[in-house]
Amino acid sequence: MSEARPKTMFKALAGALIAAALVVTPLVTVSASAKDSAPVSLEGQTGVMKPWTQETNHVEYWERVYPGATCVKGESSLGKVTVSETGKSVTLDAPPAGQQWTALIIKAGNVWNDVVDSPKTGVAYASPVNNGGQQAVVSHWIACAGPATTVVQPPKPEPVSTDKVVTTFACGADRTITTTTTTADWVWDAASLKWVLGAPVSGEPVITHQPLTPTEVESCTSETPPPTVTVTYGKWTDAKWACGDTTVTQTRVVTTTTTPSEGAPTTTAKTETRTRDLTQEEVGACALVPGEVPVVDPKGTPTSSAIPTPAAAPAATGDLATTGGTGVSPIVVVSGAAALAAGIAIVAIAGYRRRRAGTE
């Protein structure tokens, strides 16, 4: 074998090693950049961040993901869709009659889709982050709706009532107590699928009579008639409670106004406190995402102090189909190939040097 041929082989293997290194380096750099620059917070709520691919741009893809649903892209034929002025969140209005929202897919940048299952109306959902880790402006959205399923209504809460009690004195007769109750009943909202508080309605005044006390009878002998006393009982309001609690503290304000026959009225207020058991619906509403810190406001709505953070950005766009269905990162595949090429090159170079040493 001539000396030129081994030299040619050496150059080819060395070139393959350098090329493999050049392929791996930018991929690792891109992945680290997207992973390490995740935003602190996002405008709007998030669903599940799923890798973006060319295929996920099409409604047909999502109609296969959500069988029985009809999806539209960038139009409002299934209901009103609003993109915020900043372009970083999307809000759905009520779906058409007889249908319910199945999914909302928000695309921005070329790394993620924010996929929201069973999105709620009137809630702003966030656009995903771009390759630099910053929340991107929405490029398009896809909304999917399907036939509405039968929803089992939770037990209707007790109506919220407030009482106003007015007490007047009639010397030589009795004390008259007039009680007016204002009640706000709960109404089922088909759009949000929950009970909402309706408009308050005042009932007919209830009038009762009581005999005057000795002190009141004595006051009737004076020239100054007894004052009129009005007591207003506010509604009971829940304090905040955390998931895991079984009871909640309630408070209400009782306001007493004393109006003399002459002079200005005086008003005093005191706060009353009591404890009630949480309902099964309230306890069951605490199925939040693990890791969040659930705090429930006085309306019984679970919230969280945690801000959902997207997972690390993929090194290259694609889903399981593009990686052979195994979920193995393309970086791992390329890195393995580069390592193999490097090993082959090193062995070949060592063999070449041994052969050359033997011929000299």
Automatic annotation (TrEMBL):
Keywords: Membrane, Signal, Transmembrane, Transmembrane helix. The chain crosses the membrane at residues 331-352. Residues 300-314 have a biased composition (Low complexity). Residues 294-314 are annotated as: Disordered. Residues 1-34 form the signal peptide. The keyword Transmembrane helix applies. This is LPXTG cell wall anchor domain-containing protein. It comes from Microbacterium candidum.
